[in-house]
Write a structure and sequence with these properties.
With 424 residues, the protein is α+β, with helices and mostly antiparallel strands. The chain has 10 helices and 26 strands.
Length: 424
Amino acid sequence: MEKAAQRLTHSIGYVGAGTVEYLYNAESDTYCFLELNPRLQVEHPVTEGLTGVNLPATQLQIAMGIPLFNIPDLREFFGQDRYGLSEIDFFNTEYNEIDRHVIAARITAENPDDGFKPTSGRIERVRFQSSPDVWGYFSVGARGGIHEFADSQFGHVFATGNTRNEARKALVLALKEVEARGDIRNPVDYLVQLLETDSFKNNDIDTSWLDKLIKEKTVNVEPDTEQVILAAVIYRAFSYVQGVLKKFEASLEKGQTASAVEIAGINRFPIDIAYKGVKYNFGVVRAGPERLVLAIGKQRIETSVREQPDGSLLATYGGVARNVNGLEEPLGLRITLDGQTVLIPNVFDPSELRSDVNGKVVRFLKEDGDDVQQGEPYVEVESMKMIMQLSAAESGKFTGKLSAGSVIKTGDMLGTLQLKDASK
């Protein structure tokens, strides 16, 4: 394939960096041409890690008119004197043996729990530390963001090892240290589990492997339901108490007297959470400045909660300390528990069809008065350069509220349903 790529680019007089792609059939040991990408690929650090050739610098030297055989990195890769001037027959000269492996992971603003649907919004924090075996970069930082018209990728991590397995292990360890906190979702935890599958370890994968995993939901990164619910209750209870205290302090600063009933209410109050079709009714007792007692039924859970400098909560219960962060959104509470993010939807009217992405309406798939079945798509929207369909949660007669081309945000009402089952 390498020789075929050389012949192809030479025959058309191609100059510059490029990637020739082929589709390889392992069973027949044959391959066919797919395309030639006439540009620097986003994965170019993989090539650089394997060859030691700085591709952007090589492009600049080519643009300056320097012949390939005079470029130091290339000469060294082909076993020649780095600063020599002799010509190199690239068709017949073998390059140095590749003695390492490089694996790359794209970090995107996509939700692996929802078919890798793109997400957008603010980014509060991005944390990553390069090491001798792992290098990465991110195009956004703290207090940045990803808008709905951008590409979903915002980071790339590359791991190197003497063997494929060493590179895999290095990438797993590096990804476990990646933290991207904010409105967006990302597939870092999903990637870690992919790298730990037997199929990936044994390199027994093909172009249909990932689609099969997604369809069968073999890889699941959602945290334990009980832990998610407790984290949500703790976050909302802490936020409620802090909100009342700040309001009280603001009243005192203005010389006003706050409501005694409202102040007394911060020591005992209810918190309701609905998750996966089940509603949980908790009673919360504030036992101290940093102590909350959660009660549901006959069960009592004592927790210690402390706000950290970055705004997250360090919650300790059951002898385990957990990092909890949350963000109230139009569609619900986005809770992050030990780096894993889950959306706990608000209880909403099933007759309302609302957007769960930022973007714009491409076209409605139903006319006013048309019947829509549960799970049937009713609109196409564009978000982050992707076209996707949104489906109805219930059955009924459709009425649109917007027109094609409308810019939408998460939570915006796109239409309504006259429900077939009015009891819902």
